[in-house]
Amino acid sequence: MAVKGAENAEQMRRAAIAQVKRRFPGQISPVYCVKAVMLSLELPLDEGEKKERELFSYLQKSGQAKALQYGFLAQRMATKWQLPGGATSSNTKPKVVKTSAVIGAGTMGSGIAMCLLNAGIPVLLLEQNKQFLDKGIDSLKKLYFDSVRLGKMNQEQAKKCLSLLTPTLKYQDLRNVDVVIEAVFETMSIKKDVFAKLETVCKPAAILCSNTSSLDIDQIASATKRPNKVVGTHFFVPAYHMKLLENVRGKMTSPETIATVTNLGITIGKVPVLVGNCNGFCGNRMMFPYSAEALFMMEEGALPQEVDQVVEDFGIPIGPLKVADLSGQGYYKYDRPGAKIPRNNPDFEDMVLQYCKERGIARRKIGPQEILERCLYSLINEGFKVLEEGIAGKPQDIDTVWLLGYGWPRYTGGPMFYATQVGLKRLYERVCHYHREFPTSPHWQPSALLRKVAEGNIPLEAWSQQTHSQL
Fold this sequence. Notes:
The chain has 471 residues and is of the alpha/beta class. Helix content is 53%, strand content 9%. It has 20 helices and ten strands. The strands form two sheets. An eight-stranded mixed beta sheet has the order 3-2-1-4-5-6-7-8, sandwiched between helices. Strands 9-10 form a two-stranded antiparallel ribbon. Helix 2 runs antiparallel to helix 3 and helix 15 packs across helix 18. The termini are far apart.
């Protein structure tokens, strides 16, 4: 019996493959699923089943399958931590968090508050004046309205969550909470002022958290008399949606504090990853060279759309210059205020050409491979430095940060796993090449750990052990 519509099979196949490629760019398994379905129109049943088994076997052995499996396990390993003194996630008991407070009712503060409320944890939301507080409450109400509208919860659940919220303008109201999460402006003086006030009003056992994305946790803790109770809890935007929670330990942060914020992160539906204290911590520190190279290449000869297209073709959803343009840099133009579709900006391109001409910079054609290497290899080299300095405890932590926080494509496993796919020796050689080409860029100084694992062809599982030996 003829299959209805079989005459349109080729048109259907092309449309289906185009659709899955748009939805899952770079990933091969959805394309193979379409191919398997189309076999039903092309082959007898027994031959089709045989061919389908061959397709499945190919996918099962593919590099993407290994990367996806690795990412799955890495995410579950990330919640396990170990400190140099011997304290671990398995031998340290967390405190129970029954009450909380969030300072700052802006975008981050309201999003963090929603995470806590959704987990059934009462929240005191503090702001500096009634206008900001009311705006934050309205924002939270809208978030819950949208959640109901989208079917993520019903009206009664939303009402119950909001009933756990207590707005306040008084620090004194925070005297009995178990955990405080500060989410004010990313300015050290402001944060230290907040923590000095918390020191005077919060009970001695209260844990004081900062949502800073890059500032020194030890400096923030210096505003208190309880540095052992101070820790970074870096949420990602939007906080109510993004799964990553980058927990930052200071020099004095206690194992109990780390265990408590780790457990709290799991309770509110996040994947908490413990990292050390440095400028940018783990994720943002690795972003710095990635973004810098994008800017350098734009000056040397590449256009914004050329840089971003290579990165997006690799699988990162939005290129570095489009990310930078979110703060109004002007690399692209938009049809209207608030529009989300970036378009090439001839005015900016003319400005760059004029800038280079005035400074005698000879522009050159930069190919896709160089763009890819300079963006990704600089980032990965920094990742090895993060690991060798003990900022991250294991490569799986770094990969989890990038998979959940920065849109790194899951089918490549994360930057550290991807390094093994590139080949450690080749990666090290290319980093050395760019170090020779750009000796004034410190991020191209090859990581000592990268050199060691490349020379010894050491597997990823053993990299962390190398950081405790002489590099």
